[in-house]
Amino acid sequence: MSEKPQHRLGELMEQSNPPFRNVLSCVFGIEDHETRTYLVLLDYPGSTIEELASVLERDRSTVNRSLSTLVDRGLATRDRRLLDGGGYIYQYTAITLPEAKTMLHEALDAWTEQVHGVIDEFDGSTAN
């Protein structure tokens, strides 16, 4: 993962029973359209930007940005496929749902541990 996600766990805590999509978006710090791209990519592994743009009914540049974010967050991989006539295209594949769930659990566990540390270290001083 080349870019550290900006968690939006505060948003998540405001919801009493958040849907999985919201959990994914908040924990990985991704936008709703990026979450949708990930979920669609689960059903279409090895897709090109053009193929995904068609399925998602979005323009190629938006899909390209979404895929770049997903790759940065470790939620998707990008592979280069050589074309018979020369050149290449990129194909994208989502990490499996169990892998994503493991990453979600790890991120939430790390955050919870950090909050527990803040609680444990508080000495009652109003300066903290």
UniProtKB/TrEMBL annotation:
Coiled coil: none annotated. It comes from the Archaea. Transmembrane segments: none annotated. SUPFAM superfamilies: Winged helix' DNA-binding domain. Residues 24-81 form the Transcription regulator TrmB N-terminal domain. Pfam families: TrmB (PF01978). InterPro entries: Tscrpt_reg_TrmB_N, WH-like_DNA-bd_sf, WH_DNA-bd_sf. This is TrmB family transcriptional regulator. It comes from Natronosalvus hydrolyticus.
